[in-house]
């Protein structure tokens, strides 16, 4: 159908004019004999900012009846358009292709099945035995292709190819040289986020052609995001909205999909002053003042997927100013019994303070305070950076009794709360389950959580001082021994 | 009743190349047409030819620089095919040095001998495809066309099965059995099978002179003999053909010229003359020579050369119809780019700051593994003391950026299995070098100056 002799062969010049007049005009020449001119033009229009990559890919593919390189590896960040460009080319130019997502292929048999049924129909795929090996696949492919040889290059597109490293070790090297193994005009295109150096097997393999899809620059992101502007507002308004959004989010995230999602979610809030009549479209500064704190809050909630987009939209409709957003992470709204909170605080102190300092902090009278370097050299960096240290149960109980303000009897109800804390994964048990006489634990929560809890508890000043001390140790800059001194001595005056 | 089918099987792969030896085989249409094709058609035909040569690895008429190996191998196989002598040989060479090409050329010439053409059976196995001895045995049965003979028989062991197959080959011709050539591609992978049964049995047959059998192994591992078991190694004849490219740079340039030139039987002689002339001029150009020299210094094998030339040839089109040095320069640029630098170019500023923090930790602590908490600490120090343009981000946002770096495999956990440790405290390593980070910073678009200063400062 696409043989070179039947189509008029002329050079093609395609001019692309961007819809928004904020972007400068770009003109691209796509010269590809063997493919119809208008399809190429519409294809180029659908792929903004990817014209160079499209041209290079078409040049690599060549005319349909010519051979192409056996394997091509396309890499680039997420949402840079790799799958979109390749699949659009395949669909628009109607090339025989098999598109497989490697995440779906739990076993290699699924991959073989998809490839064979895409090229030769489902009957061919049914000929595969139960657990097909690579040998069966190659044999069947050779058999089918000798019955129906390829008039055009066939393409096998493997998306998320990094998953192939976890499949059979011989699958990746074999697919890279499939053209040679089956003696047919087939090209394998691998798409991935990860660079090729991490794919190479130990003893080497057939090296594919490497091709990079660069990330979008800020101007290109504005151009692409402006494409889905709301019909009832002007494109310039939408473009200025996108600029504001990128001003907040661009330094954190350059993923096109995330930015699009955020743009769609927050546009109604942006247009609120316009609808209420408080501002005109040209009052960019006012609109910015309205939306900017909203976007900052979005960064902490929707961007982190702490709230779902439905909840976010409902929040906007409720129009309350300082609502605390109900976030997903359990830590914000967990309810613990009274003694559990103290147990948790005691566990945090036990994890992050070295055992030598317990005497000084938790005993009411311990004798003279000597001016010694109470932090050993190796501990200065390690306390809050290497993570919590395990502590035995006895130490936990000792700290607990000194922290709790009332007298507590060591009953089973107190101990059972420790097990509940382990189940809630706020504490974690270290060591074997069988160790019954002196189990060891570790605190798995962060300081922010502990501070949040201790604010809820009506805790006395002394406890806050303890936590403050813990913070000082954490900051690993024990500037003046003297100031610490005074803090410790003040503690014991209470 | 055996002969016609088997001859077809043996010569199937080399059928195309047969015709090249026996007679000319250009496109039929062009024989009728006299001289000139239009420019576009000429280019299209030239592209087709060059692509077949560069991508599809069409066998050349004579392998370059491998004369002694070629003669040796041909003689060895001729002795098996014609005189019925059993042999085993290993062809060893790095990837892309021409092992399959050499074997292909030798087999092509072998099959042109009349006696070999009638008798010889060819069985081709590949270590990547036949990952198990059972699969390999089925493949051998299939390639010898003995499925009907075997039928549903159950054999006690591999050796019995193989002996039966070889015995079955005798039945057609009562006097002696037909010689079989076993070609084992990726030979080192066969050495990883259980007990190395296939190798043992094949080499055993080659030693015991029942059937004339030649076992040819192709491998890229130089230490392949160490992989073999003692009993297998003792049955191997220890013949190795090494393919280390001994081309000088001048010969390399000749190869380039030969690969890019159109053959003399091209339908449009005027076009092919112009093309060949431009190719010769191109090879004399200084910049092109520089690029080829850099490629030659990197690796002498033909595969990397083919990918470079292919990228250049693919840019030839109707608007610029000859190969120019700009094409080669662009092709070289595409090949020699650092892919991690490309990845670093697309990171957000927050992620870049995290990478710089990790670099500082590496410098301070001499490559010790770090965890997220330490990186966050470094980042906070930068924000508090030196930064004007980056404002403070919440810890979960920084964590998300860190996890993106994990996904891109720029940072890797030290022990990937253990998940008892909290995410923030899991030890990691940075998979980038100091030099790569600094270079990426130079190329990063609109990098804030305080970030650059921070990266260049010695102690964070």
UniProtKB/TrEMBL annotation, chain A:
Compartment(s) where it occurs, according to its Swiss-Prot or TrEMBL record: Nucleus
GO biological process per UniProt: DNA replication initiation
Assigned keywords, A-Z: ATP-binding, DNA replication, Nucleotide-binding, Nucleus
Domain spans labelled Origin recognition complex subunit 5 C-terminal: 336-459
Entries under InterPro entries matching the protein: AAA_16, ORC5, ORC5_C, ORC5_lid, P-loop_NTPase
Domain Orc1-like AAA ATPase positions: 46-189
GO cellular component terms, A-Z: nuclear origin of replication recognition complex
Ranges of residues in domain ORC5 lid: 238-305
Gene3D superfamilies, per database record: P-loop containing nucleotide triphosphate hydrolases (3.40.50.300)
GO molecular function, one term: DNA replication origin binding
Presence of the UniProt keyword Nucleus in the record: yes
A Pfam family hit: ORC5_C
Superkingdom in the source lineage: Eukaryota
Main localisation: nucleus
PANTHER family named among the record's database cross-references: ORIGIN RECOGNITION COMPLEX SUBUNIT 5
Quaternary structure annotation from Swiss-Prot or TrEMBL: Component of ORC, a complex composed of at least 6 subunits: ORC1, ORC2, ORC3, ORC4, ORC5 and ORC6. ORC is regulated in a cell-cycle dependent manner. It is sequentially assembled at the exit from anaphase of mitosis and disassembled as cells enter S phase.
Family membership: Belongs to the ORC5 family.
Function as written in the Swiss-Prot or TrEMBL entry: Component of the origin recognition complex (ORC) that binds origins of replication. DNA-binding is ATP-dependent. The specific DNA sequences that define origins of replication have not been identified yet. ORC is required to assemble the pre-replication complex necessary to initiate DNA replication.
Protein name per the record: Origin recognition complex subunit 5
UniProtKB/TrEMBL annotation, chain B:
Transmembrane segments: none
Cleaved signal peptide residues: none
Keyword flag DNA-binding: yes
The AAA+ ATPase domain, residue ranges: 85-246
GO molecular-function term, one example from the UniProt record: DNA replication origin binding
UniProt entry keywords in alphabetical sequence: ATP-binding, DNA replication, DNA-binding, Nucleotide-binding, Nucleus
Compartment annotation: Nucleus
GO cellular component assignments: cytoplasm; nuclear origin of replication recognition complex
Presence of the UniProt keyword Nucleus in the record: yes
GO biological process: DNA replication initiation
Matching Pfam families: AAA_16 (PF13191), ORC4_C (PF14629)
Family per similarity comment: Belongs to the ORC4 family.
Subunit structure, as described in the record: Component of ORC, a complex composed of at least 6 subunits: ORC1, ORC2, ORC3, ORC4, ORC5 and ORC6. ORC is regulated in a cell-cycle dependent manner. It is sequentially assembled at the exit from anaphase of mitosis and disassembled as cells enter S phase. Interacts with DBF4. Interacts with POLQ.
Primary role: Component of the origin recognition complex (ORC) that binds origins of replication.
Protein name: Origin recognition complex subunit 4
Organism: Cyprinus carpio (Common carp)
Gene: LOC109046789
């Amino acid at each position: 159908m696409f043989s070179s002799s039947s189509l008029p062969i002329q050079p093609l010049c395609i001019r692309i004019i961007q819809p928004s007049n904020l972007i400068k005009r770009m003109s691209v020449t796509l010269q590809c004999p063997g493919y119809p001119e208008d399809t190429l033009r519409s294809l180029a229009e659908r792929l903004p900012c990817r014209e160079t990559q499209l041209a290079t890919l078409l040049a690599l593919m060549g005319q349909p009846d010519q051979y192409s390189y056996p394997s091509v590896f396309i890499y680039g960040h997420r949402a840079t358009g790799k799958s979109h460009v390749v699949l659009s080319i395949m669909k628009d130019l109607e090339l025989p292709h098999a598109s497989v997502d490697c995440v779906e292929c739990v076993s290699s048999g699924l991959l073989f099945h998809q490839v064979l049924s895409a090229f030769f129909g489902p009957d061919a795929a049914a000929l595969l035995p139960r657990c097909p090996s690579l040998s069966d696949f190659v044999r069947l492919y050779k058999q089918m292709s000798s019955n129906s040889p390829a008039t055009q290059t066939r393409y096998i597109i493997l998306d998320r190819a990094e998953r192939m490293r976890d499949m059979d070790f011989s699958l990746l090297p074999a697919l890279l040289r499939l053209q040679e193994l089956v003696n047919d005009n087939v090209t394998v295109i691998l798409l991935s986020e990860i660079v090729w150096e991490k794919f190479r097997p130990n003893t080497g393999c057939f090296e594919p052609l490497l091709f990079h899809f660069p990330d979008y620059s800020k101007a290109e992101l504005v151009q692409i995001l402006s494409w889905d502007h709301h019909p009832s507002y002007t494109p310039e308004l939408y473009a200025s909205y996108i600029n504001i959004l990128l001003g907040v989010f661009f330094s954190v995230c350059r993923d096109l999909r995330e930015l699009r999602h955020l743009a769609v979610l927050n546009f109604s809030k942006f247009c609120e002053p316009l609808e209420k009549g408080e501002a005109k479209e040209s009052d960019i500064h006012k609109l910015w003042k309205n939306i900017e704190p909203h976007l900052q809050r979005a960064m902490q909630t929707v961007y982190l997927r702490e709230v779902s987009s439905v909840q976010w939209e409902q929040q906007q409709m409720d129009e309350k100013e300082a609502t605390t957003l109900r976030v997903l992470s359990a830590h914000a709204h967990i309810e613990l019994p009274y003694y559990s909170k103290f147990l948790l605080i005691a566990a945090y102190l036990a994890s992050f303070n070295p055992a030598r300092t317990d005497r000084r902090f938790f005993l009411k009278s311990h004798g003279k305070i000597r001016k010694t370097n109470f932090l050993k050299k190796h501990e200065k960096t390690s306390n809050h950076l290497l993570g919590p240290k395990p502590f035995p149960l006895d130490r936990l109980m000792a700290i607990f009794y000194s922290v709790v303000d009332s007298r507590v009897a060591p009953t089973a109800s107190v101990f059972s709360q420790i097990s509940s804390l382990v189940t809630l994964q706020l504490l974690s048990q270290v060591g074997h389950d069988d160790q019954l006489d002196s189990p060891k634990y570790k605190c798995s929560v962060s300081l922010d959580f502990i501070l949040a809890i201790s604010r809820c508890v009506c805790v006395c000043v002394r406890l806050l001082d303890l936590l403050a001390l813990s913070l000082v140790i954490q900051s690993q800059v024990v500037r003046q021994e003297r100031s610490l001194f005074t803090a410790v001595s003040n503690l014991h005056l209470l | 009743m055996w002969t016609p089918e088997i001859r077809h099987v043996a010569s199937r792969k080399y059928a195309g190349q047969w015709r090249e030896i026996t007679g000319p085989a250009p496109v039929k249409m062009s024989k009728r047409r006299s001289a000139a094709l239009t420019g576009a058609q000429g280019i299209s035909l030239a592209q087709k030819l060059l692509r077949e040569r560069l991508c599809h690895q069409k066998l050349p008429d004579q392998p370059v620089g491998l004369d002694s190996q070629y003669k040796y191998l041909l003689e060895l196989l001729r002795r098996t095919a014609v005189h019925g002598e059993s042999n085993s040989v290993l062809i060893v060479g790095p990837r892309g040095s021409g092992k399959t090409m050499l074997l292909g050329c030798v087999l092509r010439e072998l099959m042109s001998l009349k006696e070999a053409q009638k008798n010889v059976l060819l069985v081709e196995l590949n270590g990547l495809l036949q990952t198990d001895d059972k699969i390999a045995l089925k493949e051998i049965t299939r390639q010898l066309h003995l499925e009907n003979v075997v039928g549903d028989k159950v054999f006690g062991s591999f050796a019995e099965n193989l002996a039966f197959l070889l015995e079955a080959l005798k039945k057609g011709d009562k006097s002696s059995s037909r010689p079989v050539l076993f070609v084992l591609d990726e030979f080192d992978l066969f050495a990883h099978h259980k007990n190395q049964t296939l190798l043992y049995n094949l080499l055993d047959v080659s030693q015991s002179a029942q059937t004339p059998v030649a076992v040819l192994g192709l491998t890229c591992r130089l230490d392949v003999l160490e992989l073999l078991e003692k009993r297998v190694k003792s049955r191997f004849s220890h013949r190795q053909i090494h393919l280390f490219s001994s081309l000088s740079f001048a010969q390399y340039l000749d190869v380039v010229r030969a690969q890019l030139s159109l053959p003399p039987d091209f339908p449009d002689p005027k076009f092919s003359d112009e093309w060949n002339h431009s190719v010769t001029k191109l090879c004399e150009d200084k910049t092109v020579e520089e690029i080829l020299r850099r490629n030659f210094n990197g690796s002498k094998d033909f595969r990397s050369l083919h990918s470079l030339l292919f990228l250049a040839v693919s840019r030839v089109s109707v608007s610029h119809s000859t190969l120019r040095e700009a094409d080669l320069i662009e092709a070289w640029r595409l090949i020699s780019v650092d892919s991690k630098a490309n990845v670093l170019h697309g990171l957000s500023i927050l992620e870049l700051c995290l990478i710089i923090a990790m670099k500082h930790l590496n410098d301070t602590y001499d490559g010790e593994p770090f965890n997220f908490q330490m990186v966050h600490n470094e980042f906070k120090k930068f924000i508090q003391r030196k930064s004007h343009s980056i404002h403070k981000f919440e810890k979960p946002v920084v964590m998300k950026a860190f996890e993106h770096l994990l996904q891109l495999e720029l940072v890797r956990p030290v022990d990937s299995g253990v998940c008892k440790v909290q995410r923030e405290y899991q030890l990691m390593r940075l998979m980038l070098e100091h030099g790569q980070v600094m270079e990426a910073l130079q190329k990063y678009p609109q990098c804030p100056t305080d970030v650059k200063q921070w990266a260049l400062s010695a102690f964070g």
